[in-house]
Specification:
heterodimer; A: 6-stranded mixed β-sheet; 27% strand; B: two-stranded antiparallel ribbon; LivM-like (chain B); transmembrane helix (chain B)
């Protein structure tokens, strides 16, 4: 059984409909890339999964219906979100950001700082004063502190220096290799996604139009739907 | 942080040294002023949990101050008249024990904060301010019309209530008692701000939507903080009533809610010792300027304007700079 299963999900921003029927599945331990051009509904799909946006259709996580849950209950079921634009709690220090999100489980501050040593060096520093890359690491660390079963990374490497992007991708690869965590990735860098992700789902105008193994994602498909 | 710690220590030393000097110099009025500052600081520390950490701009915290005050007034008035109060068919004796009065004040204030919080925390921004203000006015007008307990004239208590081992009528002893409570609450506040609960509340203040994505329930966090805040302010109300040996509807007034808020803004929103610094400055201005002109509030207003315009972190922020960690605030 899939850990996350979306079937024919529709969602709107007021009168403006953004999703017209998205179906996708993520199994335990699987890393899935959610792809598509800008404005095709990737982040809206994430918002629907995390219950930040009302949605219709079937949304199930570990067999439980998500559609009636508030956002914090969905998170407590085990959905960890790294939101687009980092969005740390700027007035809190690195350690306080991590503690605020902490829930019992194998991920604690030491383990997060082991994954991102830069965070360990800056435990007492206010999040607002961190570099963009460090804030991104903190956003990932904060999501890990909730001990999620599914980690959703929404544009986690956007706008970062190449060396920082490498660090983030290395961390994602390490999460895949060393934990059984399922990961849903939204990113614009195809090469890195090919290396880390098992499968891809492509959205086009609010609908899923292609899904399959990463190895089956050929140049024709990416040129047609992803624009690369 | 070092500067803030030094400033905090200096404020505490001054708070102990001035009444100690007044006691040695036989200046009981100065001790009473210091006690007033300590009690107002306690009320403001309570509000600062809701306002500073939780970002809830409550304009009705006088409700809890008044409930604490009336808890003292009603219990003590029944004790001094040797008549039990009749409540829901029960006959309840009054008491002159501060410990019992504090317990009643804290429980009733917490219950009121729970009910008011459940209704008002569904709103935010100006609507939250208006709802809390409306609750304040509701209690204010109720107390005016409550003839059994003095109505508009209030209630006088002839002898200050008792605390085991102390003569609370001796100014320095009552001051010491109030200061001890303030120190305990400040310690609790410091622990709370850095606890996972306090950090989560702080996170929910910065972004409720983001906090929800990490599994935090902003409504529940705010409600708990609001109840704690109300309970502390209620305790301050009981102490204030005992200081004056008098309670009246002004303890429920919106002006008092405003004054508690002003203390925090002057001292530093979200800063541990901000309410204490604000209360000391407020009482000092009230005494010094109040002796010169009855329009002393104009000068207080000017001081408030200067702080808001040029010292957004209040006096503590002005002297100590921005806080090192998020822990307690957003100054």
């Amino acid at each position: 059984m899939s850990l996350l299963a979306l079937s024919d999900v529709a969602a709107s921003y007021g009168a403006s409909q953004a999703l017209f029927g998205v179906s996708l599945e993520v199994a335990e331990g699987e890393v899935v890339a959610l792809m598509g051009r800008n404005g095709m509904g990737k982040s809206t799909t994430v918002k629907a999964i995390c219950r930040m946006l009302p949605a219709s259709g079937a949304l199930r996580f570990d067999g439980q219906d998500l559609t009636r849950l508030p956002s914090h209950r969905a998170a407590r079921l085990g959905i960890g979100l790294v939101p687009e634009g980092r969005r740390c709690f700027g007035d809190l220090t690195v350690a306080e950001n991590l503690l605020a999100a902490s829930r019992a489980g194998e991920w604690d501050m030491d383990r997060v700082c082991g994954l991102f040593p830069r965070l360990g060096e800056r435990r007492g520093q206010r999040a607002a004063s961190l570099s963009g890359g460090e804030q991104q690491m903190l956003a990932i660390g904060r999501a890990l502190m909730t001990n999620p079963r599914l980690l959703i990374l929404d544009e986690a490497t956007e706008g970062l220096a190449p060396i920082i992007r490498q660090e983030i991708w290395a961390a994602i690869a390490a999460l895949k290799a060393k934990t059984g965590m399922a990961i849903l990735v939204i990113d614009k860098t195809l090469a890195e996604q090919r290396q880390v992700c098992d499968r891809a789902v492509i959205l086009e105008r609010g609908r899923d139009v292609w899904s399959g193994d990463m190895t089956a994602l050929d140049a024709e498909v990416t040129a047609r739907f992803v624009g690369v | 942080m070092r500067r803030e710690a030094a400033l905090n220590a200096a404020i505490l030393v001054a708070l102990i040294a001035v009444p100690a000097w007044a006691h040695l110099s036989d200046e009981p009025f100065t001790i009473t002023l210091a006690t007033r500052a300590v009690i107002l600081a306690l009320a403001a520390v309570g509000l600062n949990i809701a306002l500073g950490i939780g970002g809830m701009v409550s304009f009705g915290h006088a409700v809890y101050f008044g409930i604490g005050g009336y808890a003292m007034g009603i219990l003590a008035s029944h004790a001094q008249s040797y008549t039990p109060m009749e409540l829901f068919g029960l006959s309840i004796e009054g008491t002159k024990s501060m410990l019992v009065i504090w317990l009643v004040a804290v429980v009733l204030s917490a219950l009121a904060a729970l009910v008011i919080g459940l209704l008002s925390l569904r709103t935010s921004g100006v609507y939250f301010i208006m709802i809390t203000l409306a609750f304040g006015q509701m209690f204010f007008f109720f107390s005016i019309s409550w003839a059994a307990y003095g109505g508009e004239d209030g209630l006088s208590i002839y002898v200050r209530n008792g605390f085991p081992g102390l003569n609370t009528l001796v100014p320095i002893q009552y001051f010491g008692l109030c200061l001890a409570i303030l120190l305990v609450v400040l310690w609790f506040n410091a622990r709370l701000a850095r606890s996972p609960f306090g950090l989560a509340l702080n996170a929910a203040r910065q972004s409720p939507a983001r906090a929800e994505t990490v599994g935090l329930n902003p409504m529940r966090l705010r409600l708990v903080a609001f109840v704690i805040s109300g309970a502390i302010t209620g305790l301050a109300g009981a102490l204030f009533a005992d200081l004056n040996r008098f309670v009246s509807p002004t303890m429920f007034s919106w002006q008092l809610s405003g004054e508690i808020t002003v203390l925090i803004i002057i001292g530093g929103v979200g800063r541990l010792m901000g309410p204490v610094a604000g209360a000391v400055v407020f009482v000092a201005l009230e005494h010094l300027l109040g002796g010169l002109t009855e329009f002393w509030h104009i000068y207080l207003g000017a001081a408030l304007l200067l702080v808001v315009l040029f010292a957004r972190g209040g006096l503590v922020g002005l002297i100590a700079g921005r806080p090192g960690g998020g822990g307690g605030g957003h100054g």
